[in-house]
Predict the 3D structure of the following.
Amino acid sequence: MQKLYKFWSQMLLNDFNAKVYQEFRDLAFEDASSEAPSKYGLKSLLEFYDRLLLKTNTRKPWPQDRAVPEIFTAHLNEAVELDRKLGGKDAVAI
């Protein structure tokens, strides 16, 4: 699963696909919230958001003249909240 999370976090930056993104997000949250939680998917998702939303040299899947779609900001904040709940300290919400 770790290789798949790593692949998704990189592939979606180059070739965004809403269906793949939703599957990535759903599985990362599911893995982090399971009885035996694995935070690797959530960590990969947070790295994806970091590169997508905070790095200026990353190609964006929305038009250049538009602001960041609110859904990405909301999703980032949900991921940060779950990470903090699980004991993470490094993630920063927007």
User: Anything to note?
Assistant: The chain has one domain: 2-85. Residues 8 and 23 are 10 Å apart (CA to CA).
